[in-house]
Design brief:
By secondary structure, the protein is an all-alpha fold. The chain is built from two helices and no strands. The longest helix has about 30 residues, at about 1-30.
C-alpha cells in the first residue's frame, strides 16, 4: 500500500515540477522577447530533472 501511495504522489510531484520548469522558461522567453533557451531544451529539462528526482527519491525510499 505504501508503495502505491509513493508512486501516486511521486508522479504527481514530478509532473507538477516539470510543468513549473517549462512555464518558467516560457515566461522568461516572453519577458525577454526572444528565445532564452530553445523549445527542445525546455522540454528536455522539464522531463529529465523531475525524472532524475523521482529516481533518487525512489532509491532513498527503497532503502528505508
Amino acid at each position: 500500500m505504501k508503495t502505491k501511495i509513493f508512486w501516486i504522489f511521486g508522479i504527481l510531484q514530478s509532473l507538477s515540477l516539470g510543468i513549473i520548469i517549462f512555464l518558467l522558461f516560457r515566461s522568461l522567453n516572453l519577458i525577454k522577447g526572444e528565445s532564452v533557451i530553445g523549445l527542445d531544451t525546455q522540454i528536455l529539462l522539464s522531463i529529465s530533472f523531475p525524472l532524475y528526482l523521482l529516481i533518487v527519491e525512489y532509491i532513498i525510499y527503497r532503502k528505508k
